[in-house]
Amino acid sequence: MKNKNCLIVFLFLIVLSACTSKGQNSEKPTSEAQKIIFETDIGNDVDDALALDMLYKYIDAGDIELLAIMINKEGVYPQEFTDIMNTWYGYPEIPIGIIHNGADSEHDAVNFARCVSLMENESGEPLFPRSLNNYTGLPEAHILYREVLAQQPDNSVTIVSVGFSTNLARLLDTPPDDFSPLTGKELVAKKVKLLCTMAGCFNNPELYEYNVAKDIPAAKKVFDEWPTKLVTSPFEVGIAINYPATSIENDFDWAPVHPMVEAYKCYLEMPYDRPTWDLTSVLYSVEGPSYFDISGPGEIEVSDKGATTFTADKEGDRYYLKVDSAQAEHIKNHFIQLISQPPLYLK
To answer: Is residue 114 a contact partner of residue 43, using CB atoms and an 8 Å limit?
Structure first.
């Protein structure tokens, strides 16, 4: 009974502190904060949850303004889990965009978003607080993109895409509307300065990377037609940097329950170390190129089977990240330090 009461008090304090921190964080100057939109297939692989954790920590530090979270995985649980995360970290106001008729990925892996969303306390109540009550009524991502982008200064937004390309391809095809007289491609060209993706593989022509292969036509369209600079973190980068189970098991004692930690434990049988594919795209987008080697400019082609090929071209505006073993170790340690720290409102 004592543990149960402690848990209830802790969750109450989270919600109370989140509301307080929201007000405090909104007082931070945002003129120098990078404007980020996060595009994710959250629920397919747990690295999305760790990447989202990083983004909240960057908000805490005043480094970024997270304009929206766009989801390209079908179902209710991805947006419910995202709402849980937004609420738990103290940022329930971040808009969420969803997808209808997207790529079928429900049976590709354990849906950790569903697992965490269904967790209950000893009284049979939801384990984690939420801020929304109608997940099916959320706007479709490609429409929310138009609303958000239209409100931003020119050449100011970085999109971090760590899932399928479906929403981005749909955005490019959108016509003018009440948000903007520009087409989708024109709006992107005007408002976006960088698209950073986790997609592709350049050291193995026989490997059809998951984010590309799940919606090949959309990936083709984005790599061919996206009108701004595009930097991708390929499969071979993230698989070289593994987030350790020892951190999940030992570094989060400051929280009796933690939605990202529970997601990690749901995804595979513990203990396991997981590649940090999506985290590398977030790191590059926010902290810049110093952690990586980067290819020269070129073009990226997606084959009909989903293979990706890079061709050097000094006139091109496509790039990809690379790491050596020393860089991989340095990045891993940086991830652990950043992710294992408490959110701002719990410090």
So the answer is: yes
pTM, rounded to two decimals = 0.91
Using CA atoms, how far apart are residues 104 and 116, in angstroms rounded to an integer? 21
Q: Which tokens is 147 given? A: 């609303």
The tally of domains found in the chain comes to 1
Q: In sequence order, what are the beta bridge partners of 25?
A: none
Q: What does the block give as tokens for 26?
A: 């909104």
- The CATH number of the domain holding residue 122 is 3.90.245.10
Residue 162 DSSP one-character state: -
Beta strands 64-71 and 34-40 are parallel
Cβ atoms 322, 294 nearer than 8 A:
yes
Rounded-to-integer distance, Cα 160 and Cα 84, Å: 21
Residue type, 122: E
**What is the distance, to the nearest Å, from the Cα of residue 180 to the centroid of all Cα atoms in its chain?**
26
Q: pLDDT tens, position by position, for the chain (347 residues)?
A: 434 444 444 444 444 444 444 433 433 434 589 999 999 999 999 999 999 999 999 999 999 999 999 999 999 999 999 999 999 999 999 999 999 999 999 999 999 999 999 999 999 999 999 999 999 999 999 999 999 999 999 999 999 999 999 999 999 999 999 999 999 999 999 999 999 999 999 999 999 999 999 999 999 999 999 999 999 999 999 999 999 999 999 999 999 999 999 999 999 999 999 999 999 999 999 999 999 999 999 999 999 999 999 999 999 999 999 999 999 999 999 999 999 999 999 98
- Contact between 322 and 237 under an 8 Å Cβ cutoff? The reply is yes
